[in-house]
């Protein structure tokens, strides 16, 4: 019998890109996107009674948990002894209450967070690393549940978890190191990271995240068909995808960001001790403070008096 599945969504809620998307051709407003994302979430919940969801938002400079609300368990309905599910009262009789809770809870939280945004500078990047970190911590907690209060009860099986990240912003080179740490953590947890790119900005790091974790990267060419993309590319589990023709990346850009200026480089110099990357040869590594011989610097065209060091070309 297959294990339950947990789906964690990360929403890029930067207001400037969403304003541009709402005036693009074809237009895609944040509210229209959320409506289709909720249909996608409900489809995931409908596949299996034990399936669960969580949603995290990346806003300019900070990240927040959007769903489930604090104290609401793990984002899915739980049955009581009498057969009814918790919190089933007071809803629309024509709507499955789990769908209603997800729809109302997520929409209200997103509107609350977006309305609370003050004036932000256009170059303020979204806190994707913070949202990704919170998502991985949440998944790790699901994968390691506390022992049951009754020793005779079997511990619940950990769900298969995966992350779907919706991006509307370009890469933030300053976040390269913590972002790579998140990718390595996802690899350790065996959590694939799917990326749904809604605009045309460059996202080298997200290409690497989906490739290194075994996820899918899909650029939405026709925004009016967003729900079809979500259903065909992201609804299936990783095991099921082996028998499906899920879009793959023809070419992955593995360029990195230098540690000195936080800019993406085509050719870099790597410290032979801690593997820090620099755009020019330096006399002393700023990360591990390793010093290298003047001969090494001269061989790579550097100066022995420029304050930092490196030894290997990337």
UniProtKB/TrEMBL annotation:
GO terms for molecular function: zinc ion binding. It comes from the Eukaryota. Residues 66-97 are annotated as: Disordered. Keywords: DNA damage, DNA repair, Metal-binding, Nucleus, Transcription, Transcription regulation, Zinc, Zinc-finger. Gene3D superfamilies: von Willebrand factor, type A domain. Component of the 7-subunit TFIIH core complex composed of XPB/SSL2, XPD/RAD3, SSL1, TFB1, TFB2, TFB4 and TFB5, which is active in NER. The core complex associates with the 3-subunit CTD-kinase module TFIIK composed of CCL1, KIN28 and TFB3 to form the 10-subunit holoenzyme (holo-TFIIH) active in transcription. Belongs to the TFB4 family. Component of the general transcription and DNA repair factor IIH (TFIIH) core complex, which is involved in general and transcription-coupled nucleotide excision repair (NER) of damaged DNA and, when complexed to TFIIK, in RNA transcription by RNA polymerase II. In NER, TFIIH acts by opening DNA around the lesion to allow the excision of the damaged oligonucleotide and its replacement by a new DNA fragment. In transcription, TFIIH has an essential role in transcription initiation. This is General transcription and DNA repair factor IIH subunit TFB4. It comes from Calocera cornea HHB12733.
